[in-house]
Design goal:
Blueprint lengths: L2 E5 L3 H10 L4 E5 L16 E2 L6 H15 L11 E3 L2 E6 L3 H14 L4 E4 H7 L8 E7 L3 E3 L1 H14 L3 E3 L6 E4 L4 E5 L2 E5 L1 E4 L5 H8 L7 E10 L10 E4 L5 E5 L2 E5 L4 E2 L9 H14 L9 E9 L6 E4 L6 E5 L9 H14 L4 H5 L4 H4 L6
């Protein structure tokens, strides 16, 4: 049986480890006390087939069946819950709305344009004197990140895999038959190493002795506040130029300035200036007055130059596999990304349905970045 070390316990590593454990001996190494601390656990987790380039959107479409109907016993509650996404714009953003409508509809036929009055009917706090119209994606939804992530980790263990937290990888050494993986707890040998370390992927690559893929960690700020009126049926509302967004989050509203601030890999902390910027933008297009914030935080989203995920073998380093750069779409694409990696590692090719959709080793591979 193939032995595989997965470095990183976020959604990328957990989902891949889950799929791989079906046919391999898998050990997942996580440097933090809990898995998913830096990115997965801080995500707004929207399921949309309109966000990202065409490959990302196809990955989301291929992931919908799993999210909507996971295997028996995978999760106690529904993972995907319906919530439309409403992209809105002012009169000055009319051209952006038209471009987005045409772009989104080209892949998601259910997408439609909506009037200012329809926008206000769906979300009564929108200011109809400012919002000129919108684009509605009716088939979008909220993802229960905790249920999804926990399901992957529980399924990994059920399939015989191991999760080691508080286990930072401190050394990677190529051998004649595979890899020696060193942690503070000792050294173990594996046939394959999967680099799913999120914002730290380039650093793990350096540890293995390979070239970087140009990963850029970007900070994203979020916060919650109490809305002035009943809000639970609102859609997620997103500025068409992605300058802000907000959506219901239990008894509160979750909001963000949709910032992308470069930073070194680490524990992201929010900046009050970014929170204030989001409040200013949101109150400019709504009738809300946000006087206080319940809590605020920040997370890391990591991208490569073309904002497309990386899923493939390192062309210069046998037995070293990259699963990186999943940015703001790692959660919604995790089922398809994990199946893709499992196919590449077990069969040397992606699953047929993904290849037929144009999701190939070439479009996700490392070579495009070198």
């Amino acid at each position: 049986m193939t032995s595989i070390a997965v470095i990183g316990g976020g959604i990328a590593g957990a989902s891949a480890a889950y799929e791989l454990a079906d046919f391999a001996d898998v050990v997942l190494f996580e440097r933090e006390p809990i898995c998913g601390y830096h990115s997965t656990g801080r995500s707004a987790a929207l399921f949309t087939e309109c966000y990202g380039d065409p490959i990302v959107r196809k990955l989301a479409m291929a992931s919908r069946p799993f999210l909507a109907d996971p295997p028996a016993g995978f999760a106690e509650n529904s993972i995907l819950r319906p919530r439309p996404v409403l992209f809105v714009g002012t009169g000055a953003q009319h051209a952006a709305l038209q471009t987005s409508l045409e772009d989104y509809r080209s892949m998601v036929p259910s997408v439609r344009g909506v009037s200012s009055a329809e926008c206000v009917a769906m979300c009564p706090v929108l200011d109809g004197n400012v919002i000129a119209g919108g684009v509605l994606e009716p088939g979008a939804g909220d993802i229960d990140v905790h249920a999804l992530h926990t399901g992957y980790l529980r399924g990994l263990r059920t399939r015989g895999g191991t999760v080691l937290t508080d286990s930072p990888v401190t050394g990677l050494h190529r051998t004649a038959t595979g890899w020696k993986v060193a942690t503070p707890g000792g050294t173990r040998e594996f046939g394959v190493v999967i680099n799913a370390a999120g914002a730290w992927c380039d650093l793990v690559g350096e540890l293995a002795g390979t070239r970087p893929i140009g990963l850029a960690p970007l900070k994203r700020t979020a916060f919650t506040f109490r809305p002035p009126v009943e809000h639970r049926t609102w859609p997620m509302v997103v500025d068409v130029d992605e300058l802000w967004y907000f959506r219901p989050e239990g008894s509160a509203v979750l909001a963000s300035p949709a910032d992308e601030t470069p930073m070194e890999p680490g524990d992201a902390r929010h900046d009050e200036v970014d929170v204030a910027r989001a409040i200013e933008r949101i109150t400019a297009v709504t009738t809300m007055s946000i006087r206080s914030v319940d809590r605020a935080w920040a997370g890391l989203r990591s991208f490569v130059a073309d904002h497309r995920p990386v899923n493939g073998w390192d062309p210069d380093l046998p037995g070293f596999y990259w699963l990186a750069g999943q940015g703001g779409f790692g959660i919604k694409t995790s089922p398809a990304m994990a199946r893709f990696a499992a196919g590449m590692i077990r069969e040397g090719a992606p699953p047929a349905d993904l290849t037929e959709a144009g999701i190939t080793a070439e479009v996700l591979g490392v070579a495009r970045l070198r």
